[in-house]
Amino acid sequence: MKSKLLLLIFICASLLNAQNKKVVHPNLSGVSCKTCHSCEVPTKENPCIKPCPRDKMISIDQSPEEGPEVLIIDKFKEQSDIYAPVAFTHRLHAEMSGMSGGCKMCHHYNPPGQVIGCSDCHELTRKRVDVSKPDLKGAYHRQCMDCHRSWSGKVECVSCHETIGTSKNKKKQPIGYKGKNRVHPKIITPDKIKFDTPKTSGRIVTFYHSEHNELFGLECQSCHSNESCVKCHNKNKSASLKVKTTEQKHAVCSNCHNTKLNCSSCHLDTAKPGFNHKVSTGFDNSKFHSKLLCARCHTEKGKFKGLNNECMNCHGKWTQENFNHKITGLVLDETHAAIECAECHLDKTFAKPVCNNCHDDISFPKNIPGKLTKKK
Amino acid sequence: MTNQSRREFLKTTALIGTAVTGLSSKTNGAQTNQLSEDRMGVLVDTTICIGCRKCEWACKTSHEMETAPLDSYDDRSVFNVKRRPDSKSLTVVNEYLNNETSSLPIDVKVQCMHCDNPACVSACIVGAFSKKENGAVIWDGDKCIGCRYCMIACPFQVPAFEFEVALKPDIKKCDFCFERTKIGKIPACTEICPVEAVTFGRREDLVKAAHHKIKNYPNRYINRVFGEHEVGGTSWIYLASKEFEELAFPKLGKDPAPGVSEAIQHGIFAYFVPPIALYALLGGVMWINKNKKIEQGEEN
Ligand code: SF4
Ligand code: SF4
Ligand code: SF4
Predict the structure, then answer these.
(1) pTM assigned to the model
(2) Average pLDDT for residues A184-191, to the nearest whole number?
(3) Residues of B with Cβ-Cβ distance to A157 under 8 angstroms
(4) Which CATH number is B28-291's, of 3.30.1120.10, 3.30.70.20, 3.40.50.2000, 3.40.50.1240?
(5) Which end of chain B has the smaller Cβ count within 10 Å, N or C?
(6) Using H for helix, E for strand and C for coil, what is the string for chain A?
């Protein structure tokens, strides 16, 4: 009887538990509770979280806008009699985190599902039994200082905190609080970078940064996914430069380019001119296609070969009915508007028309079969 | 009180006498067995310490020692020389260059390690040092005769002598904040540390936590917890990103460091008796003088 009762209790508990699990960790597929929790029934009060490397399970897909804008870190107000709270510009940091690993840069052990804050795991008191993770104050300070001191070298409390009592700030706003809606200043990107490599022949590699993000339309994160903040924030650049292996140097390019073959497509003895569609492919896109992103025509991701210069590739078959000739800067007169395209445009690139199929003494562009609308 | 102390001294001398006359050196034998499973410790993670030296300030303040104001501790030029704990600072933080992995320096807090088999305890011929149940190794000024064996015995060169005090110099060393922990507080340095680079807890839990860290972040740490086994284990244990010997930790084996008295006693068996007799005599003279001073003090 007793054992049956116990069993019943156990089943109820595990059912409850299963339900809870659904709420807290909605996308926890196939991960055992034991991976992270040491007790049978983890509760919010006692989650009994083990120090496990949960990196692989972390799935934060919040955008910076979904998180809080500014957090006032004043959890220690009662404990601290020397330093005032600080304002943490969460959104600003979240935006930038995209280039250094995303939310999990700080929300390091976030279980699958909702984003949890620091105080959900880190205890408020330093005197505690579980020493596997720092207390909340330690955790906060580590998060901030890990990066901030790496470029400023500063560890003084007053570089972030105001001293209580000395505040000239009437509104009692924490230091660093410069109002809501603060965004990261526009990042100034280089136009091109010339790398002087140690190779004896093909020393120079010219990298056109602006082409990659403006012309090719790559997001910053496409290449800068694992940067440390110090890379930009350090004023003393040479201090943060690391010696890289050949692979590491090529890694950022080899995501898209095959860096094992054809060294000379990048390594030249002089600076390489920027990308020019006409020079590289024979198709002059400067007239009608200059504003298009590459992907409009090169639809298969990462594949740029395979298209020829025939208009049909993208536009389908043009007929005198479906093509508005005005777009070319020439409105055809009535006679010519009724003629099939191919009568005048003999090749499939619809280049310069020929007139001598019908006319003996007329030629383009000396004679115009209509009215020009814009200067050529 | 004085009489009693004298009697105790006689007892201690008798004990030494026994040791001298042939029994094995057992002045410290009992200490090793007193180690409680729940003894406390501190895990110092040198990869986290930022070298703010708040711990130095807190240590002095909590021990009512003279200290400069807190904001003067921001001055990082003190790191230009390597310092040792002394009679005016029970703990110091030193900074080392971190050449390979990062431009950030490595900061190392130094204080008494509170050994599990403390050489200072076994060295002290009058039992002025003792290992407490909570892990602390503390010094009792009432018993000390000022022989300074502890200073020679300590493998970490921790105990410091107040040379500048003429009348009644003390041995100074970190006491693991014994007076604070007695009333349920945590050591002052572990309380103030902004990044919790020094974590106070059960030693056993700390050793476990340290190994977890190494396992989870193999690139951050070398695979060694200093103090887990060194000189038989210490209450304060350390993690680091590079070999401890490069951070001015002494190179030590796993065996407990012998106390000086032990070494001397072993010496006696091999050679002859007089040195220890001389030491005992000298010790006796110092002891009596000391008590005279106390008596005088009481009379005044
Ligand atoms: S470090 Fe030195 S002073 Fe401290 S307990 Fe060990 S032997 Fe004694
Ligand atoms: S434990 Fe206490 S005595 Fe020892 S260094 Fe820390 S504050 Fe100083
Ligand atoms: S207070 Fe903490 S971070 Fe600061 S020097 Fe001491 S141990 Fe290092």
Answers:
(1) 0.74
(2) 82
(3) 52, 194
(4) 3.30.70.20
(5) C
(6) CHHHHHHHHHHHHHHHHHHHHHHHCCCCCCCCHHHCECCCCCCCCCCCECCCCCHHHCCCCCCHHHCCCCEEECCCCCCCCCECCEEECHHHHHHHHCCECHHHHCCCCCCCCCCCCHHHCCCCCCCCCCCCCCCHHHHHHHHHHHHHHHHHCCCCHHHCCCECCCCCCCCCCCECCCCCCCCCCCCCCCCEEEEECCCCCCCEEEEEHHHHHHHCCCCHHHHCCECCCHHHHCCCHHHHCCCCCHHHHHHHHHCCCCCCCCHHHCEECCCCCCCCHHHHHCCCCCCCCCCCCHHHHCCCCCCCCCCCCCCHHHHCCCCCCCCCHHHHCEEECHHHHCCCHHHHCCCCCCCCCCCCCCCCCCCCCCCCCEEECCCC
